[in-house]
Design goal:
Blueprint: H1 2-13, H2 17-33, H3 39-58, H4 63-67, H5 71-81, H6 87-110
């Protein structure tokens, strides 16, 4: 993964400043909106897009002319085609977020009262 990141950074740094700005926005949208998509597919798509943009620059085209003026629209169109993460990963994320939320709830509730009681007998019939 780090090799891909290094190669992608090198490709981005070789772009013109206007194309680099467009691609950085595009990559940001891909990473933010693509968090529920397969990350390997997102990375592969970013590498392919960077290569396409580099080829377009060699043909004297810019990113806006080649891919369109809106990096957000382009990212959303591509992300619709990429596979979602599997259900096991979704459940892991859900339980991790729920655990953190409960931990924070308990920590903040403990600061409000002198004694915090957790008892199963309070919930019995």
């Amino acid at each position: 993964m780090s090799d891909e990141v290094t190669r992608l950074d090198q490709m981005i740094n070789n772009l013109t400043s206007a194309d680099r700005a467009w691609f950085v926005k595009f990559a940001m949208y891909m990473r933010i909106y693509g968090w529920v998509r397969d990350q390997a597919a997102v990375s592969n798509e970013l590498m392919a897009m960077a290569q396409d943009l580099r080829d377009a620059e060699q043909d004297e085209q810019d990113a806006a002319g080649y891919f369109g003026h809106s990096p957000r629209t382009m990212a959303q169109a591509i992300l619709r085609q990429l596979p979602l993460i599997d259900w096991g990963t979704r459940l892991k994320w859900f339980f991790a977020l729920a655990s953190v939320a409960w931990l924070l709830l308990l920590m903040f509730a403990a600061g409000r009262s002198a004694v915090m009681q957790l008892s199963i007998f309070n919930f019995s019939l």
